[in-house]
């Protein structure tokens, strides 16, 4: 199942990387003709006001703006997990300046190629994109002041391993700030068990309390939720998996999908 999920995610994002943000927004879920699946852009936020924003790097795949709450400083070394075409990396680079460094990590070749082309056009010498799996990063210990990620960890099958890796690569006293998708309450199994939905950020979402507990058990401190927003899933998406009565119950109960931005610190 784990390999199948990663294969699905890699295939989906390979196809998304080959399209523009506009094409992703107008093709239902980013891959054309699949309106019965999740529309990625139901989670996305507007980056246009952010310093360093590059339209060519924005594929509309995020569920927050982690750099808004990441307390990145000039000269910092920043790692972006699941960097895609480089959107958050370029925003972070505008903050760290010439004296800092930004590394984007992704396991999809097509995304990395797009990010590297964007960076070549911009001419940044202190931005680098590398291939790697979040569960087993090809990076040394204690390298980064800040780790950011945007709507990616929900796609990672082993979240405990992912947070352990984040802790490993952070410097003592460093911190992460992650925008992600979580659930509240018990999601219907038809939604949760469909691997295809992982690439749409729904089935991969675990319960908020479990998510926070994993962070705590990994050893992080000062866990803070900066932003939380319920994602309203249209009935045309839900009806692929639920009947009318189940949709009504899903909408009325205090359960559902939420985007959050959370940060925590590694002990010095």
List keywords for this structure.
single chain, 268 residues, alpha/beta, Rossmann fold, seven-stranded mixed β-sheet, 7 strands, 32% helix, 22% strand
Describe this structure in a few short sentences:
The protein is of the alpha/beta class and 268 residues long. The protein contains 9 helices and 7 strands.
Please tally the helical runs, counting DSSP H or I stretches of 4 or more residues: 9
Shape: globular
Which CATH architecture would you pick?
3-Layer(aba) Sandwich
Q: What's the CATH class label?
A: Alpha Beta
- What number is the mean pLDDT? 85
Q: What strand order characterises the main sheet?
A: 3-2-1-4-5-7-6
What is CATH's topology name?
Rossmann fold
Protein model, in words:
This protein is α/β, with parallel strands linked by helices and 268 residues long. The chain has a single domain, classed as Rossmann fold. The chain is 32% helix and 22% strand. The chain is built from 9 helices and 7 strands, in the order ααβαβαββαβααβααβ. It has helices at 2-17, 21-26, 87-96, 109-122, 159-169, 189-192, 208-218, 235-238, 244-252, and strands at residues 77-81, 101-106, 127-131, 144-150, 170-184, 221-231, 256-265. The protein has a 7-stranded mixed beta sheet, sandwiched between helices. The protein is globular, with a radius of gyration of 18 Å. The model is unreliable at 25-38 (pLDDT under 50).
